[in-house]
Design brief:
Elements (H helix, E strand, L loop, with lengths): L1 H8 L5 H12 L7 H11 L1 E3 L1 H10 L12 E3 L3 H18 L1 H19 L2 H5 L7 H4 L13 H19 L4 H10 L3 H13 L6 H10 L10 H14 L6 H12 L4 H8 L5 H16 L8 H12 L23 E3 L4 H6 L2 H10 L4 E3 L2 E6 L1 H16 L3 H10 L6 H16 L6 H12 L24 H15 L10 H13 L3 H4 L11 H5 L3 H19 L6 H11 L9 H9 L1 H7 L1 H11 L5 H14 L4 H16 L1 H4 L8 H15 L11 H8 L5 H15 L7 H17 L2 H4 L3 H4 L6 H12 L9 H11 L4 H18 L6 H12 L4 H16 L3 H4 L4
Parallel strand pairs: 3-5
Antiparallel strand pairs: 1-2, 4-5
Helix pairs in contact: 2-3, 2-5, 3-6, 5-6, 5-9, 6-9, 6-10, 9-11, 11-13, 20-22, 22-23, 22-24, 23-25, 24-25, 24-28, 25-28, 25-29, 28-29, 30-33, 31-32, 34-37, 36-38, 42-44, 43-44, 43-45, 44-45, 44-46, 45-46
């Protein structure tokens, strides 16, 4: 459910929300709960690149599903993903390192597998080409980081936290890494063993050294040689026996293959060249073992060291590259940050406009030198160097109209957003002018046969991502942790008006962002204009934080321009869905306006559109009396059109369930009585008479609410809950009443009442298999103060077991109950306990309970 919510409600630029959630769990004593784990699993996970999939589909390059691999990408863009991992996941791993590491291990394994070609998967090899896309496991070694590299380095950090702070979990972590197929996990083990050579890791280090078969013909990769060197220095002669050392050293000296070298060199081969190559190979292979070299091996190595080989060898001389010819594509900028920063501003502008020589790296064809990576580096230089220099920043504010590729405009916008988040507001007016200029480039209509626009193109520019960056900037300004000065109100309102009223190709031409998805909210939060509508409502609350009595008329004025009958751009379905979700906030901002315009936002004469608006209000908002008062007609309309609610593919029957949950809450708040003509809750049950699963789900939902409520719940609420139960018990639908599990554990309800109600339900002769273990745990918890009722309920459970024989009673939960009943001084209690024991023995549970006789 958490994953589904995040997928549905994720907004561009909301990485700080995820970080704050993870940090919150990082500060709560005890292990993070399931929700924290579910969020963590979602945010670190990779998925196939949807844009790549769409392009393949258009080019018909992938006629059979699964025929080729897709480059995996995270659910967030790179910068946000990096922020989440660095600011949210890493701190959480410091508190629960093993649990976080396990989640990251699974995410990494899934990411690698997702990007592999099916033919490579069939070969059952461990090659993952990780030494190309993640050359160092512990830290970045280049300006531009690949998202896969960021994930693995975070995993390495979490594993290090296990070694440093949770030694009791080291064995389990090592086993988890061993179970994964790919080479990156073996590299991680070697990296960890290098960092933590001790008695626990000694046998694992020996295993890796002794099982290695590449001594005569393969170069050591970085982590393997580092592990060997650190282990040799730490353990000394204890690491390897004399026989083991001699075997390894002789194997090294038997290589490399002259035939292979001859084939590689071709006409350039010479005996002298091979001898030179061989001696350098021996030197590199023996160096990690320096601390263990003795006798002839030491003499030979010292001889190699004294020869003229240039500078002494270091760990960094062991290349992470292995000469492989396939794997993941990574991106690299043609200039690093220092080189860009050293350009004059005129030179830098000219270089960005001119450079378009995208190519493969001549030493590694898996590295693409491209504009995307250049834009990432430019963003960092613009934020940290240019904007920190008044003169340089002035040049770019005077010349941004001369930036010919929108991708670099977006880089500038992101840099400005970054400074706003750091509460640096000195140049806000300049930023607003810049963003106004961005919005002067409307989203063009697209016609078949025309060239596809791109944010990297000068001839056919696509300003879509730059326009989206304006929304990101506005959201950053309105964030509670930022709160830019209220003096920017006019400038922000002007930007929002433009964004909310301009043409949007995807929305207005019904071209979904995700071709395989028909969820209107997903579309709304991934399109610029609809996202701007959400930002507009946020703007209203931002104004209220400064001016509590202000009506924030900008919000309703802009909305009315879209709602007017003669508007040039009518609301699209995703926008109706989003405004339905936000309707409660609109009611708070301006109740009179909400009342006046609710029929336009929830058009009863257009059921598909009404369903999107009202359905998403049900899905994503909590009940509120104010909302109900305004939308009572819509709740009644929903009850008369339940089939219309079910029209949403993603929700299935979920919207009907959500309607019932809302209606139950309004009953609790005494909006209407439990039964009778005026009760919408009673009408809900009447309308779902042919679908009792709706009854089951609502009864279970109420139990969940009660089990999570505080002990001192309002007495009037308890009275209405009990009246509701009595009503449902009188109806007597057994499937519904079997969902009493969470009711039984609800401490806000009197224990005697819960046990009596449970006993009455058991008299119906059925209980639910999946909830029995939880119910037994609750009975055991109530045992000390409520022995007679607990034994009575337990005995009735065993009576049912003897009749159905399809329920499993855990001995761990049952024995304490039986023992207490059998030892009671009350004859009736003992008699019930003896009957329960006899029932268990009858169904063949003598091994578990015979000792109680």
């Amino acid at each position: 459910m958490i994953k589904k919510f995040l997928r549905s409600s994720y907004r561009w630029g909301e990485d700080e929300l995820i970080v704050s959630i993870l940090k919150k769990w990082g500060g709560i004593p005890g292990p993070p709960n399931n929700a924290a784990h579910e969020i963590l699993q979602f945010v670190v996970a990779f998925q196939p690149d949807p844009e790549e999939a769409e392009k393949r589909s258009r080019r018909k390059e992938n006629p059979e599903a699964g025929n080729t691999s897709l480059e995996p990408i995270p659910c967030f863009d790179q910068w946000e993903y990096q922020q989440i991992l660095e600011k949210g996941v890493r701190p959480l791993s410091e508190r629960e390192p093993y649990q976080v590491a396990c989640i990251l291990i699974d995410a990494t394994a899934s990411m690698v597998r997702m990007g592999m070609h099916p033919e490579d998967l069939k070969k059952e090899r461990d090659e993952d080409y990780s030494e190309i896309w993640c050359r160092r496991l512990d830290k970045p070694d280049r300006d531009y980081q690949d998202v896969k590299e960021i994930l693995v380095q975070t995993l390495n950090y979490a594993c290090e936290q296990v070694y440093a702070n949770a030694p009791e979990s080291i064995d389990a972590l090592d086993l988890a890494l061993r179970k994964k197929r790919w080479k990156v996990f073996r590299r991680l083990r070697q990296q960890l063993y290098a960092s933590y050579p001790n008695e626990q890791t000694l046998p694992w280090i020996r295993e890796l050294i002794l099982e290695y078969k590449g001594y005569p013909n393969q170069q050591h990769h970085y982590e393997f040689q580092l592990m060997i060197r650190k282990a040799c220095e730490y353990f000394g002669s204890r690491l390897l026996s004399e026989e083991e050392k001699a075997s390894i050293f002789d194997s090294i000296l038997s290589g490399p293959s002259k035939d292979s070298f001859h084939e590689w060199m071709g006409d350039q081969f010479s005996e002298e060249a091979f001898q030179q190559h061989q001696r350098y190979f021996h030197r590199k292979k023996l160096r990690p073992f320096t601390a263990l070299l003795t006798d002839k091996y030491r003499i030979y190595f010292d001889e190699l060291e004294t020869e003229n080989h240039g500078k002494p060898l270091s760990d960094d001389d062991y290349s992470p590259h292995t000469g492989t010819d396939g794997g993941f594509i990574s991106y690299q900028s043609p200039k690093n940050a220092d080189e860009l920063a050293n350009f004059t501003d005129e030179e830098l502008l000219a270089y960005l406009n001119r450079w378009d020589e995208e190519h493969r790296d001549e030493n590694n064809w898996l590295i693409k030198v491209n504009i995307t990576a250049l834009a990432e580096i430019f963003q960092a230089v613009f934020k940290d160097t240019i904007m920190a220099n008044e003169q340089r920043f002035g040049f770019w504010m005077n010349n941004y109209k001369n930036v010919e590729r929108p991708v670099y405009v977006e880089s500038m916008a992101k840099a400005m957003q970054g400074l706003v988040k750091e509460h640096k507001f000195g140049d806000l007016n300049k930023y607003l002018d810049f963003f106004e200029w961005i919005l002067s480039h409307p989203d063009p209509d697209r016609k078949e046969g025309e060239p596809e626009p791109s944010d990297e193109s000068r001839e056919h520019p696509d300003w879509g991502t730059s326009r989206r960056s304006v929304v990101d900037f506005i959201d950053a300004c309105l964030d509670k942790d930022v709160d830019v000065p209220i003096a920017t109100r006019g400038g922000l309102a002007k930007l929002l008006e433009t964004l909310c009223t301009q043409f949007d190709w995807r929305l207005d031409r019904d071209h979904p962002i995700l071709l395989s998805h028909d969820d209107s909210i997903t579309e709304a939060i991934n399109n610029t204009r609809s996202r701007a509508l959400e930002s507009l409502v946020t703007f209203g609350f931002w104004v209220r934080r400064y001016l509590s009595e202000d009506a924030a008329m900008e919000v309703t004025d802009i909305l009315e321009k879209r709602l007017n009958a003669d508007t040039e751009i009518p609301l699209t379905t995703p926008e109706y869905a989003l405004l339905g979700l936000l309707f409660g906030n609109l009611c708070v901002l301006n109740k009179d306006w909400a009342v006046e315009n609710k029929k336009m936002l929830f058009p009863l004469d257009n059921i598909p559109v009404w369903r999107e608006a009202f359905g998403n209000l049900l899905r994503f908002t909590r009940p509120a009396k104010l909302t109900y008062d305004i939308l009572k007609e819509d709740f009644e309309f929903a009850l008369d059109h339940l089939d219309g609610l079910d029209g949403q593919k993603d929700s299935s029957r979920g919207l009907v369930d959500r309607l019932g949950q809302h209606l139950f809450t309004y009953y609790l708040w005494e909006v209407y009585p439990l039964t009778g003509k005026t009760s919408l809750l009673a009408l809900f049950y009447d309308k779902t008479t042919d679908d009792h699963q709706r009854w089951v789900h609502l009864f279970k939902h109420v139990g969940h609410i009660l089990s999570n409520s505080e002990k001192n719940l309002n007495k009037k609420l308890i009275e209405r809950v009990i009246a509701f139960f009595d009503w449902r018990f009188k109806i007597g639908e057994s499937l519904e009443l079997q969902e009493f599990t969470f009711w039984l554990s609800a401490e806000c309800l009197d224990a005697e009442w819960r046990l009596t109600a449970y006993s009455n339900i058991l008299d119906l002769g059925q209980t639910k298999i999946s909830g029995l273990s939880t119910e037994l745990d609750t009975l055991k918890k109530l045992l000390p103060d409520h022995l007679p009722h607990v034994i009575e309920c337990f005995t009735k459970i065993t009576d049912i077991v003897t009749q159905t024989n399809n329920l499993h009673i855990r001995a761990k939960s049952a024995k304490p109950i039986l023992k207490a009943g059998l030892s009671s001084g009350d004859s009736q209690i003992r008699e019930n306990a003896e009957r329960a024991l006899e029932n268990l023995l009858k169904i063949g549970r003598s091994d578990d309970f015979l000792d109680l006789e």
